[in-house]
Amino acid sequence: MSSEAEHPAAVTSRSDAERALQEHVASVEASNRCHQLFADILSHDLMNPVWIAENYLRLVMDGGVPGDKRAFFDAMRGSLAKARGILADARTYLKLQDLAAPGGENVDLGQIVEAVAKSLRPLGDEKGQTLTVSGAGSAMIFASPLVKEVVSQLISNALKFAPPDSAIEVSLSSGRRVRLEVRDRGPGVPEECRERIFKRFEGMEKGPITGVGLGLAIVRRIVDLHGGRVWVEENPGGGSIFIVEFPAAD
User: Fold this and answer.
1) How many CA atoms lie within 13 A of 180 on its CB side?
2) 117-147 burial string, b = 16+ CB within 10 Å, else e?
3) How far apart are CA 116 and CA 134, in angstroms?
4) Is residue 9 helix, strand or coil?
5) DSSP string computed for 142-209
6) Which helix (DSSP H) or strand (DSSP E) does residue 239 occupy?
7) Strand 167-174 versus strand 130-134 pairing type
8) Are residues 109 and 150 in contact, defined by beta-carbon separation less than 8 angstroms?
9) Can you tell me the distance from the alpha carbon of 204 to that of 46, in angstroms, rounded to the nearest whole number?
10) Handedness of CA 52, 213, 197, 139 (dihedral sign)
């Protein structure tokens, strides 16, 4: 008894299904590799500052701290703050990876900028820096609360990398698109690094200030989710200008 030949359409359909399954498996494997890489880098960058803090604490407890203890306590506070920042950024980054659409409502970006600047000015005061905001009138965009993270990351970075007694200038302008600029007088970003710094785990050459490089990756992801764009330019006279543009609200 002979069997009938399989219809060509059925063969094609099965091939398409098998190909789709293979692509899905490959996607899952790539995602798993990404998460493993993330875990490896996170554990290294997290454990280093924690280790430093623990050793300083042991010195204090053993009574072996020479000279002025203030410097040691400052070092402990800085290391633990760095670890806390790494964890916060990691948590935010992971949440963003599975987010397809952030939703939101019409919000005034100017009000968000003013609120963030007010909360961060004490950090600048410690270094003698001035943080000014201009053009923060009504700048309406359709956005989720995640946009506040964009503003916070950019202003925090400017304060961190800019030298003492320098000025950080934040400005807003609106039209068909709402434009946010954060200007600093820090070391600047070489042209060849200006795209790379927005990718996860990447940043500038290791120097006095280091991190896992998640902050700007978070910024890029949030801006992309809102249909905007972000980039960095050279600040005339030295430093950087980080620029974000969002579509204006209807």
Assistant:
1) 33
2) beebbeebeeeebebebeebeebbbbbbebb
3) 14
4) helix
5) EE-TTHHHHHHHHHHHHHHHSPTT-EEEEEEEESSEEEEEEE--SS---GGGTTGGGSTT--S---SS
6) none
7) parallel
8) no
9) 18
10) negative
CB 147 within 8 A of CB 245: no
User: What's the chain's average pLDDT?
Assistant: 79
Residue pLDDT, tens place only, 69-106: 767 777 777 777 777 777 777 777 777 776 666 778 99
Tell me if 181 sits within 8 A of 170, measured CB to CB. yes
Who contacts 165 (Cβ-Cβ below 8 Å, separation ≥6)? 127, 128, 129
Of 128, 139, 159, 42, which Cα lies nearest the Cα of 89? 42
Ordered by where they begin, the domains of the chain are 8-97 (1.10.287), 105-247 (3.30.565.10)
pTM here is 0.68
Q: 210 is written with which tokens?
A: 């280091």
Spatial CA neighbour of 102 closest among 190, 223, 5, 4: 223
HSE-up (13 A, CA, CB side) for residue 240: 23
For 63-146, where are the alpha helices, taking DSSP H only? 70-97, 109-126
* pLDDT tens per residue, range 193-206: 888 888 865 555 54
In this structure, are residues 120 and 159 in contact, taking their beta carbons and an 8 Å threshold? yes
